[in-house]
């Protein structure tokens, strides 16, 4: 999905909500466990109940990989379901935090973007910047696909290295400054945690036009209003993720309905902020 | 596998060779493609032909993920084969470069280390340091398991951020200094590329006792003698990886035999260096 289609989607749905599919078999409603593929059934129900309120879905790969081949199958079925059932209506993010030497990243790019190879066709993948330009470049050779580079993350450990400062510039600012030249604002986004919303003003000075994927609203304590205050652009420029608050809103048979209620609350807050 | 067992293995086999299983269906011998699972058949043949010369095997996850669920199955069968056929004789490394917020890394740790969850039981996993302590800690809660933290990588992009310098200290040195306190030298190793062998002296000043996983010998141009000169310790302290040079030594029916010849050359060079 290209940049203009994404922006259209956001203003049409009046939402910049991404729903994180951190699907944990120990947390999904018990009645789903009778299915052959409970994780997929859960995801399908969540997506069907919220697709008009969210612009993006973000399966978190760890929650599938922990179930081995079976989990990888649930993941594949989920992205196929999104693409087949809601073509052009949803932006999909492979939250996989990949990054390796060039010939290896090439293979990761095939995994995320080439359905003839892996069965999966995500719109975007999250990547780690530590190994530098050649570790993320292979992902950029797919037209219409995106990388989302980790810049400033929402966890406590972000302070360990991301604030390492040289010549008045912090590592996460170096990452933003350097990496923005690897692609354009039509194929690169950045992860900036909502728990660091006060940093968004400084970040917007370096990358005024790029989209930001913002995790950390909700369970991790970040504020949507704060994020919007410093991060919104005329093109919106934000995709804000919520996972646990929405998908685990209820442990009962009404889980999808309750997920919709939570998603609706966020969408309405977003609609007001977009005005 | 604990540290003393690993050291025993190295001195018994007179080798610190790791063979990288970067198994690419477009590069393996054509005659294997008739099998149901050509990647697994290839790995099995390579392992059987070299298990006495190598101390470790390192499947590179990207090369499996690019084939989707089918690839994940080949990967699972490979690690199961290693553990069942050569118990206690081989150290296994999940080359996956994972790292995410704590509750997500917990799931990645289950994927790599807990066979009751994922079907896979690797001894070690490569992790990216960018997200800091809480992103790798969950991997350290498994007794006898290891994390291998990216410090100084073998690719050109290593120069983009890893040499970012503040107060006379480069980012990769910061990573070494800080992270060594997250665990001990009995559950943490570091990735240091062979193409940066001249940095090993500085690195050994910071972490004199940790094992290093050294990629980049062979196809990427690094020298084994240089790596040993600066990196060897009394406990060896090195695991040197070679992938393409060994596994693709021949494209014909003699691929396993030729792989053994290449592995044997490296083992003999290592035996001399260990003296």
Secondary structure elements and pairings:
The structure is a homodimer of 275-residue chains.
Chain A: H1 3-13, E1 17-21, H2 38-50, E2 56-59, H3 62-65, H4 68-85, E3 91-98, H5 102-113, H6 115-118, E4 124-127, H7 133-136, E5 146-152, H8 158-161, E6 165-166, E7 169-170, H9 171-179, E8 188-192, H10 200-206, E9 211-214, H11 224-231, E10 238-242, H12 244-247, H13 255-274
Parallel strand pairs in A: 1-2, 1-10, 2-3, 3-4, 4-5, 5-8, 8-9, 9-10
Antiparallel strand pairs in A: 6-7
- Mind summarizing the main beta sheet of chain A? 8 strands, parallel, barrel
Give the strand order of the largest sheet of chain A, numbering strands 1, 2, ... along the chain. Answer: 1-2-3-4-5-8-9-10
User: How many helical elements of chain A?
Assistant: 13
Task: Give the overall shape of chain A.
Answer: globular
Instruction: Tell me the span between the first and last alpha carbons of chain A.
Output: 24 Å
- How many strands of chain A? 10
